[in-house]
């Protein structure tokens, strides 16, 4: 199951805080060293790939549900189709 936006935000925030502590940059306006950017890029990359996969899976589920609904509706005879079958019988027996 995919992570929520809040979970990804917490993960990224946690990662940034740990990097800041390791490199001793506790000031809010301090920049992280260049070593940290690949980790941040990988985090975003994983998040985007997971979001794409979840979006694709959701679209496939929706398509299958729609297909199943259409199949159920096609199998269920409607009142009009039943009436169309009864009218010729009524004419023959009258």
Description:
The structure is a single chain. The protein has 94 residues and is mostly helical. It contains 3 helices and no strands. α1 packs antiparallel against α2. The relative contact order is 0.08. The mean pLDDT is 75.
Strand content: under 5%
Counted beta strands: 0
Helix content: over 70%
Query: Which class do the helix and strand fractions yield?
Result: mainly alpha
Write the layout of secondary structure elements.
Blueprint: H1 5-23, H2 36-75, H3 79-93
Helix pairs in contact: 1-2
Quick recap of the structure?
The chain is mainly α and 94 residues long. The protein contains 3 helices and no strands.
Entry keywords:
single chain; 94 residues; mainly alpha; 3 helices; 0% strand; rod-shaped
């Amino acid at each position: 199951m995919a992570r929520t936006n809040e979970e990804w935000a917490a993960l990224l925030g946690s990662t940034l805080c740990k990097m800041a502590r390791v490199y001793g940059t506790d000031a809010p306006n301090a920049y992280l060293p260049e070593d940290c950017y690949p980790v941040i890029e990988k985090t975003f990359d994983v998040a985007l790939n997971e979001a794409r996969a979840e979006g694709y899976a959701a679209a496939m589920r929706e398509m299958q549900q729609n297909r199943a609904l259409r199949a159920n509706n096609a199998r269920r005879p409607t009142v009009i189709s039943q009436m169309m079958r009864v009218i010729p019988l009524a004419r023959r027996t009258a």
